[in-house]
Amino acid sequence: MNFKLAIIGGGAAGFFAAINAAEMSPDMEVHVFEKAAQFLSKVRVSGGGRCNVTHACFNPKELIQFYPRGSRELLGPFYVFNPADTIEWFEKRRVKIQAEADGRMFPVTNTSQTIIDCFLQEAEHYNVQLHTQIGLTGITQLDNQQWQLNFNHGGDFIADAVIFASGSSAPIWEILQQLGHTIINPLPSLFTFHIKDKRIDELMGVSVPDVICKIDGEKISSTGPLLITHWGLSGPAILKLSAWAAVQLAAKQYQFTLKINFLPEYNYQSCLELLISQKSTSPKKHIQLYPIGAVPSRLWKSICLFCGINDKINWSDASKDMLQKLADSLTQAAFKVTGKSTFKEEFVTCGGVALEEVDLRTMQSKKLPGIYFAGEVLNIDAVTGGFNFQAAWTTAYIAASSITNPVESKK
Description:
It is a single chain. The protein folds into two domains: 4-187 and 346-409, FAD/NAD(P)-binding domain (3-Layer(bba) Sandwich), CATH 3.50.50.60; 194-342, no CATH class. The chain has a six-stranded antiparallel beta barrel. Helices cover 34% and strands 25% of the residues. The radius of gyration is 25 Å and the shape is elongated. The model is unreliable at 407-411 (pLDDT under 50). The protein contains 14 helices and 21 strands. A hairpin with a 5-residue loop joins strand 7 and strand 8 (147-151). By secondary structure, the protein is α+β, with helices and mostly antiparallel strands. The two termini are 17 Å apart.
């Protein structure tokens, strides 16, 4: 009788695990069970429909720094399978991956359909059995160490090993908790901030190339580009901050004060000194017409008005109070955040199966032999830029590799 592997979840991690397991063990019977009507829905919308496959960061010690949860635990796995291996894996299947200036990597076709087609073709080639609209409702270990899976449709299924690649699924986490696993409270990560403030109300679409963002009262900060939206603030700096501070911001119920330095090369004092020097070097220039640093002109004018500097005031007319307020507004501007929004369709969750209960060398449960994990079902998450997919590829590959010798895996 063939060794049967059941994979719960037909997303990125599930397909990657299925294809690799089937390729490594041709005699293994591999089944993927997906509760939705379509496979790979998150792959489809990733990167604005282009699929941000991975990131051009090839040193595992540097790579782990992009993971708020799981960084220490992923170091070993990334030495096994990292972005270089991901690129090679796809290119062996005639899918070329290219890097953009910021390190994000996409298929050269610039469409996620390329990745989806690759997975579906590989699954068919290796005879992976695909099942949609079948949701897991329960799982029981049998006396012979096999696993009986109960589904809402399609009856039961007996598996020799199970890989949970179910993403951020509350029902699956509940099942795993009933089996004895600890589930770290799932919380949103990678989200944008709701802000209603006259300084940015009319500036939708304006971006600042580099800022420093921090949460008032916390030690967490981030840097990078900032984007003003119709609901508040977004962009890499905000998304990174939301990931690193996901737990703290949830505790604050997403009501907090955000501090922004629009001139990262300056602090308040050095900025004030710069502004004072403008009085002597450019006394007749109108302040609103000459932004400092990389602050966009529309944002500069809005900040000036907030500081009481209209379009008639030149540098020689600026009072000490005006310059102090301007320095403050440029280097430590305070914004009241009143809520959050998911970043497009690319919802990421922190929380999940506690990593100390998983053998990261094999992705096998320390509590339940024969149960493995891959992807976002684990308490692993990353900032935006292809890092979450890389964690999915890595954990799925290791899980698949660990089940390729069925006789050994059952000992």
